[in-house]
Amino acid sequence: MTTRSEHLESSNGAAYLLVAENLRKTYDSKVALKSLSFSLRPGRIMGFLGPNGAGKTTAIRILTTILQPTAGKFSIAGISHNEPDRIREVIGVLPESHGFPENVTGAEYLTYFARLYGQRKSEAKKRAASLLREVGLENRARSLVSTYSRGMRQRLGIARALINEPPLLFLDEPTLGLDPRGQQELLVLLRSISRDHGAGIILCSHLLSEIEEVCDNVIILRSGEIVASGTVAEVMHKTRHNNVQIRIPEQFVAQAKEALGGISGVLRISQKRTNEALCWLDVELEGMPVEDRQAKESLRNKLLAALVDVEIPVLNYSAEGVSLQDVFLQLTDEAG
Amino acid sequence: MAAAENKPVRRASVGWIVVTSQELSALWRGGKIPALFVPFSIVLSFMSYLLATNKELNLTPPKEMVFFILQVTIAVGLLISLIIGANAISGERENGTLESLLVTSVSRRQIILGKFLAALSPWPFILVISTVYIALLAPSAQIFWLALLLVSVLGSLLVIIYAGFGLLVSIYSNSNRSSLSVSLVVLLLSLVETQLPSGGQTGNVGYLFKRIDPIEATLQVTEKVLVNNRTMTEMNNPLGSQGFWLLSPLLVALLVVVLLFVFGHAHLSLHARLGLEDKLKRLRSLRRGRSSALMIVFVLAGTFMFILASSSLATRALALGSSTKQRNPAEPLQISIDRRYEVTKTGDEFDFKTQVKNIDPHKQSGPLVVAMNIINLGSGQPVDPEDWSPERTQAIGSLKPGQASELTWTIESILKGDYLIYMVATPKPVGSTSTSQPVASSAIHLTVKPHTRLNPGGVLPLAIGTPTALTVVWLGLRAMRRREVEWTPASK
């Protein structure tokens, strides 16, 4: 733990744990990552958000020295990316959809990794036991990993990423495939890790809720480019609109557009067909301050009332409110 | 730079040792590898018992039985190591465990070294198991030690080659399927050599081919030294008639190790950079003419096969062209032998002498070659003298009128039975199209009695005991592992 603060003081006076400048990765003619620049302070949680193929995993793999950047540079705890061996000493990684060896128990698995980082066997065993306790797996320490549930495996993976007490942790889709309860448990664990270890975390996800819940900062990527970045609050403010989505049978679309179009505050109505008979209407409303909940809700009710008045069957009504998801959808949908 | 000093320099565990021990426990703990030893020892037991008891097979000389055991041992050893090697990296890629390993602070080279050593680990045990059977079948202590030396030196070289090769292929494959199929195809190709028509095995090209292929070279050395009474020095004399057979296994082993540790580690990445899969896919789309490089490989292979075939045909044509119908008068030569009747036991050796005399009072003879011939009186078939004697032929220079030359021969009684051994002195024909008249000696009548060492009663206890002991070891390891692991999960 002492090493972390010393790292920081040493990194040219700047209190950054990680500094990335213009990272770029291309495969032949395909651009996986156009230009990624950001910095992370110690103890902060940064979220990487984006649809599949946005370049999140590529970015993580460059930063964890698995891939070499085509251009650009980065440093972690003051260590340049030209020294991957030394960077590996100060990072912990939970790769995307990682596996486990057959026929090992949780304790054996962690002991192995502790020893890979140079710990003596006895130390390694102790470290494994304490981490298993921390991620709540102490009861299953002697069970084979193959008998673990998905959530337990992810927790074991996180314990493995923590084995060398890294000041910086990379977690690529840690909640992938978990049920809501498992996701929640994992997020609680992440927050406590960030608090107890004081480690910086870079969290990759396509789940907005989890980024919104645990991250201090967020970077939204699309097609290898940053489309938004900043604190979660800053990014949320980037949403220009307030949307409501309504599903109705197709034959009522024209009628519904007419009914809704007359309401003040409605900016635009666009339609998306889901199947032959049903349509989603996407109603964009005038931007309103987040605080003014009442005005927003009454406008939404007006929309619903207008449809009910002309006897249009409303099959589904979704008022999303301003969330990271709105921003995300807006920013990542634009190209498509 | 203060950060550099902060880096934990002290490493109580060395990376490759940790990787090796982890791989070893994955292979051995729970009895994965020991489970393979059981069928291996059953095969060897079955073979030994058959060889020792079956009337027909009992005709096989004991040395050949030992050679047979060595072949199976080497084959099983290199196959197991090849498969472990071929799974090593591509298996981790497939399993999704490679990335976690690559982000640790262990260097790529140490990972490869650890995996390589683990792939070699079954070999010493296979060797020990095989030793039991060699001891069982070896007709003498001398043969036992010779066989053990051959299999441990040459077998180890081959295991190093194939474990390393499998690992190399694995580094360049994204899936176990492709790395296994590429490795096995190469293994098959190196075995195919022995299956080529005899023409492909003789001639200069065949000569070269046999010496390049480490498996073929190993089997040649083993067989010639163990069964055919050649010496290791004879087989590895670069200037001698046999050439330097050990060159290929030594060089290929060196090559594989250099490729692994000098180049391979740089290519150990999350996704195989060369991607053997892509290459295989391209092979499939060859018809569309996409890959000219592969076409070249095919054309080269075709040309090579053509040269091989034509060289053997040419050799045969030349042999036919030189035949002739001329007849020479009887040669004025006499050949005598110093024994008449001998009784031995299988495996025993004895010496005898021959004398060749030029009985022509005026003329000097041409250069002579004396050849040994052995007839089995039971079957009336000739026996290959190569199995019986280190020297099947001996050459003498020209003999002056009245001059005699004495030669010493060694015979090893390989099989029980009644035999006639006689010698033939063959003068070298004078001209390139002329012929000559060989002269035969009287014969030694040799009765070979069976060696009593090989009896089914002696074979059976070990033939049953070894697999049983190995099964116990395997089950014991399994049980130990089961005790280590908690099977009924504690309630959370």
> What is the CATH-assigned architecture of the largest domain in chain A?
3-Layer(aba) Sandwich
Counting H and I runs of at least 4 residues, what is the number of helices of chain A? 12
Question: Which of globular, elongated, flat, extended, rod-shaped describes the shape of chain B?
Answer: elongated
The ordered string of helix (H) and strand (E) elements of chain B is HHHHHHHHHHHHHEEHHHEEEEEHEEEEH
Domain module tally of chain A: 2
Radius of gyration of chain B: 29 Å
C-alpha Rg of chain A (nearest Å)? 24 Å
Mean pLDDT of chain B: 80
User: So what's the CATH class of the largest domain in chain A?
Assistant: Alpha Beta
How many structurally independent domains of chain B? 2
Strand composition percent of chain A: 25-35%
Strand element count of chain A: 14
N-to-C order of helices and strands of chain A: HEEEHEEHEHHHEHEHEEHEHEEHEH
Strand proportion of chain B, as a percent range, falls in 5-15%
Cα distance, first to last residue of chain A? 46 Å
Structural class per helix/strand content of chain A?
alpha/beta
Structural class based on helices, strands and sheet pairing of chain B: alpha+beta
Major β-sheet of chain A, in short? 6 strands, mixed
- The N- to C-terminal Cα distance of chain B equals 47 Å
Oligomeric grouping of the chains: heterodimer
Summarize the structure.
The complex is a heterodimer of chains A (336) and B (492). Chain A has helices at residues 2-10, 56-63, 84-89, 106-116, 121-134, 150-161, 180-197, 208-214, 232-237, 253-261, 293-309, 324-333, and strands at 18-27, 30-40, 45-49, 71-76, 79-80, 91-94, 168-172, 200-205, 217-222, 225-231, 242-249, 266-273, 278-285, 316-319.
